[in-house]
């Protein structure tokens, strides 16, 4: 597993990095497919915030928490990640995932940060943050499962039935909506 660290407003001691790497290695007991882990630690006032992203089998899981001690913040984030990995593993057991024609696609949206972010104009709101994702081919059912797993309100995916990019989203009534191009 490839592990990278980032720090904001603080320095991460080597013993904390080793501690986090050992904890991340323990996650392999829950799920073997973990490829990349990124840990960001930062301090606000007297609390340490820990954010963790893990890429495993084409999905990305994200967890964040805060505590008064850096190691305690890492422990809380690891516990959340364990729950997410267990949930994902259970869903894989209950649903048969299609692995045919798994071609990774990606799209890019520019990220505006810092001095690039301008005040709202008369034209309307501006995009101030965006992300880059790999779009995995999957069925609508798999996309709904993935969206629940990463605890997001929408997900863009390559629909295996149509071969086109689709978006599934959570409606206010608890059901799902699907946007498909013509």
Total count of helical runs of at least 4 residues:
3
| CATH architectural name of the largest domain | 2-Layer Sandwich
Helical coverage, percent range = 25-40%
Instruction: Give the rounded overall mean pLDDT.
Output: 78
Strand order of the largest sheet: 1-2-3-4
CATH topology of the largest domain: Double Stranded RNA Binding Domain
CATH class of the largest domain: Alpha Beta
The 3D shape can be described as: globular
If you compute it from the alpha carbons, what radius of gyration comes out, rounded to the nearest whole angstrom?
19 Å
The biggest sheet, with number of strands, parallel, antiparallel or mixed sense and barrel status, is: 4 strands, mixed
Overall tally of structural domains:
2
Distance between the termini: 40 Å
What structural category characterises the helix and strand content? Answer: alpha+beta
Number of strands: 10
CATH superfamily of the largest domain: Ribosome hibernation promotion factor-like
Portion in beta strands:
25-35%
Q: Which parts are unreliable, with pLDDT below 50 for 5 consecutive residues or more?
A: 96-110
| H-E string | EHEEEHEEEHEEE
